[in-house]
Structure formats: C-alpha cells, structure tokens
Amino acid sequence: MIKLHDLYFKPFISAQKIEDTVERMAQEIAKDLGDEIPVFVGILNGSFMFVSDFVKKYPKPCEVTFIKLASYEGVKSTEDIQRLIGLTQDLSGRTVVILEDIIDSGNTMDEVHRIFKNESVKELIIATMFYKPEAYKKDYKLHYIGIEIPKKFIVGYGLDYDGLGRDLPEVYQLKTTQHMTNLVLFGPPGAGKGTQAEFLKQKYNLVHISTGDVFRYNIKNETALGTLAKSYMDKGELVPDQVTIDMLNAEVEKNAGCNGFIFDGFPRTNAQAEALDKLMDSKDSQINAMIALEVDDEVLVGRLLERGKTSGRADDADESIIRNRITEYYSKTAILKDYYSAQDKYYGVDGVGSIEEITVRLSAVIDSL
Length: 369
Ligand code: AMP
Description:
Layout: E1 2-4, E2 7-13, H1 15-33, E3 39-44, H2 48-57, E4 63-73, E5 80-85, E6 95-103, H3 107-116, E7 123-131, E8 144-148, E9 154-155, E10 171-174, E11 183-186, H4 193-204, E12 207-210, H5 211-220, H6 224-233, H7 241-254, E13 261-264, H8 270-282, E14 289-294, H9 297-311, H10 314-317, H11 319-333, H12 336-342, E15 346-350, H13 355-368
Bound molecules: adenosine monophosphate.
C-alpha cells in the first residue's frame, strides 16, 4: 500500500503486465499499419511513460510528438475549459495515432477530434493504455485498448493524484475504505476479551463480533449451524475452519459501512487469519492490530470456573473442558502471535488487574495506532 497526500492506494496492475500490454499493442499497431510511417501523438502529461515505452517497442520507423491539455479561463470566470495545445507540425496526409494513457469519460476525445478536424490527416487512430468502459460517454471509436479497468481512480505509470504518483512504474488503485479500524482481540479463554470488547466498542464506535457468541446464539435458536457447532463446543474443541469463516464473512457483510470491527474469538487458526486478511482486503481495508490479553493459566481456570457458576455455559462448568479449551488455544491459536508479529501488528497487554485498568491499557494501544 502507498500513501499520496491524504489518500491510500493499493497495488493494482504490475509493471510486468503493463510491459506485456505495451508490447502487444506495439505489435498489433505495427502489423495493421504495414509500411505506413505513422506519427504517434502523445497527450501530456499522463502519456509520457506509455509513449516512451511504446515507441521503444515499436518495431518499425515512426515519428513521435506531443500535445498538451491546458486550462483556459472560460466565458464565466469560474469555469475552466481544457484545451489541447501544441500541435505545430503539418500532418496533412499522414496516419496519426493518438497515444493516450487513459480514457474514462472521453472528454479529451472531443478535443482530439476538434483539433484534427481541419488537419486533413489520412487517418486518425486512437490507442489508449487504460480504458474505463463504464465511464466512457462518447461515440468515438477507440481502435486499440491496452487494459480495461473498473471506474475507480488510479495512479502510477504517468497518472497522478494532485501531482504525485506519475513516476511509479506500476499502477495503484484508490482504497475506498480509508477510515476503518479493525482490531483482533486475542487471548486464551477467560482472558476477558468479551468484557473488554464491550467497553472498547462504545469508546471507538466499533462493531463487536464474537464468534463464540454467534455460535451460542445459533445453538439457542436451534439452527443447522448451531447444531453443528454444538458438537465441537461441548467438548471444548474448535468448530471446523470453513464453517467458522463462512459465518464470520456473513457477520461482516451484515455490518458493511461501519467504522470498523473488534474480532473476539476470531481468528483462532492460521487458515482463519488468512481468510480474515482476504476479507478485509476485499473491503479495501485491513486488520490494524492484534491486541493480546496475557493471563496466567491458573488464573484463567479460576476465572472460568467462577463464571461457570452463573453463565450457564456447559464449557465453563467442567474443569477438564476448560483445560481442553486452554490446550486448544496453545496448540492451535497461540501461533497466530507469529502471524501478526510478522506484519508488525502484535501488541501484548497484561490482562491481570481490574477491568478499568485493563481497559486503560488497551485504549493506550489503540490510541497509538
Ligand atoms: P469463546 O466464547 O470464544 O470461548 O468460544 C466458545 C467455543 O466456540 C470455542 O471453544 C469453540 O468451540 C467455538 N469457537 C468460537 N470461535 C471459534 C473460532 N474462531 N474457530 C473455531 N471455533 C470457535
């Protein structure tokens, strides 16, 4: 991911794919033009990189020139009219190939056709590296198209965002969800994740998803998912990954557009962590931090037995099931510390103390993100 001014952009089209596309376009155009010596006309500023790469790959003699889009003061003083300037050469009788970096609404095409109308060129051919079919509003034929892209803002390979990004050899796409804060609240059973999540969701206006709670809700309502999950939960084992991942995806989908999520009890395996990264990526977002509550095993057993007296949870009532849940945590889940450490997102927090003290510790981490 890169940041230009105030916005974030994610990798979209690799330099290699661009190079292959330029090569293909150069070959196609050369083949179609036969022995004709064309004049390639680049439209500045955006096309400089495309034109340079294109003519290097063009296998036959050619001429190259540029025209530029410039702003004039319009009839009304506030209105800017974009005009193409810089065509000084006599192009009558020549085959002209316009090389554009990108065609979206097609407004520049009006200008191109306007300035070439009286030039009596032999043929006017349009070639564009990138093309947004959903945005194109004109009827002018586009003879050669490099890569079709969705109607999203891109930078790189000549294209800029407020002056920056033209120099990048690959193309990036604007991330649309800029604002989400997504936290994974981590720790063994009984560490206090649920309790703390309640405070944090209020304070930071986040949606709290506890996979354990969602499973218990399904068990209570005797859904198919509940019946399936119950057989694992009663023994203190993990519910199979695909079942849990599908359920989590659905919960996130239900809350699309929120400020962010607190994931509690998820992910619990590497496969779940990878699925979560993919899901966040599809939302143009990411996990910002995994915050782990660190609590000694014997304290956990004591807390869960205490909770079992009132929670009504079968898996809190029996010490051997509690110990099995803790063992499951260390054998399957604790490895996720490495997963998030490798991304520089792991934050350990002492989970022993009063509820308020621990909330203060967690908030300090979140505020530092
Ligand atoms: P919890 O309320 O987080 O302690 O979860 C209670 C039980 O729900 C666990 O012991 C598992 O059987 C099941 N469970 C909750 N979250 C997950 C998950 N991410 N993956 C697999 N099983 C889960």
